[in-house]
Write a structure and sequence with these properties.
Layout: H1 5-11, E1 15-22, H2 29-32, E2 35-44, E3 48-52, H3 53-56, E4 59-65, E5 71-80, E6 85-90, E7 111-117, E8 123-132, E9 136-138, E10 142-144, E11 148-150, E12 161-164, E13 169-179, E14 182-188, H4 190-193, H5 196-202, E15 216-221, E16 224-230, H6 235-238, E17 246-247, E18 249-250, E19 253-254
Antiparallel strand pairs: 1-2, 1-4, 2-3, 3-6, 4-5, 5-6, 7-8, 7-12, 8-11, 9-10, 11-14, 12-13, 13-14, 15-16, 16-17, 18-19
Length: 261
């Protein structure tokens, strides 16, 4: 599908560019840097922007640039550490917004298009098809029970929107996978829609038990879990885990895959 002019005209105004500054003392700065750029999408006329959490993690200042080139200061008002979504707010009213719809109706092979910032007033689009709607786990202890992967290449900075063929936003672009047939991963918007009130009221999810976090990077090799790296000051480091260690059991239970861990 080539995204039609009509769909683009209705979707483009909701796309924003994010420029983020992070204090060097913040724990994320050593990995993600102190200056970050990303995409976001306006989802409420009151100035709410949906994006990915790692772009704004630890933000000391956010500049939001709209499609017309005007900019305003943004503030992180909600972060979901489990799913990787974040909500940023700008003090502007009556802004254009995207239409959000749960991704439940999506099926493999459905056509989608991605819209992302490529700089302050520059936007880029790419098209493709849904290749997977299965769980996803990554080597830095990140797991989604449902993720959307697509053959569409991410056309710009992460944090932008995935739209279905009716121009409805169904996901937030999070990762460039660069795998054959699975080029981009998006977080389904229902992770925001289903918990919107809780996130906006408390700034995070409060009704769900905290997910355990160890502080390791790991991968599977010949049916075993190997530690690729350990973050400083984490439970993993304090427990004596080191890069190159092989994890055999947790509380006496054998583990052979990241999902099991």
């Amino acid at each position: 599908m080539n995204a039609s002019v009509t769909l683009l005209e209705s979707s483009l105004p909701a796309s924003v560019h994010l420029h983020v500054n992070v204090d060097a003392a913040h724990p994320s700065a050593s990995i993600l840097g102190t200056e970050r750029a990303g995409s976001g999408t306006l989802v409420d006329t009151a100035g709410l922007i949906l994006t990915v959490q790692y772009i704004v993690l630890g933000a000391s200042g956010i500049e939001v640039t709209l499609l017309d080139g005007t900019s305003a200061a943004g503030e992180v008002i909600a972060q979901d550490f489990d799913t990787g979504l974040a909500v940023v707010k700008v003090d502007k009213k009556q802004l254009p917004t995207a239409r959000l719809t749960p991704s439940a109706a999506l099926e493999r092979g459905d056509e989608v298009f991605l819209l992302a910032s490529a700089g302050n007033s520059a936007r880029r689009v790419s098209t493709g098809a849904i290749s997977s709607l299965t769980p996803y786990d990554a080597y830095w202890e990140y797991r989604l029970e449902r993720a959307i992967t697509t053959t569409a290449m991410n056309p710009g900075l992460s944090g932008g929107a995935m739209f279905d063929r009716l121009g409805r936003m169904v996901g937030v672009v999070s990762l460039d996978l660069n795998e054959v047939g699975r080029f981009t991963l998006a977080i389904p918007v229902e992770y925001f829609l289903d918990h919107r009130e809780e996130l906006l009221r408390h700034g995070r999810r409060t009704t769900r038990p905290s997910r355990a976090w160890v502080g390791v990077y790991c991968y599977t090799l010949q049916g075993r879990l190997v530690i690729a790296g350990v973050l400083p000051g984490t439970p993993a480091e304090l427990a004596g885990l080191r890069a190159g260690d092989v994890l055999l059991k947790v509380d006496g239970e054998e583990v052979r895959a990241r999902e099991a861990l």
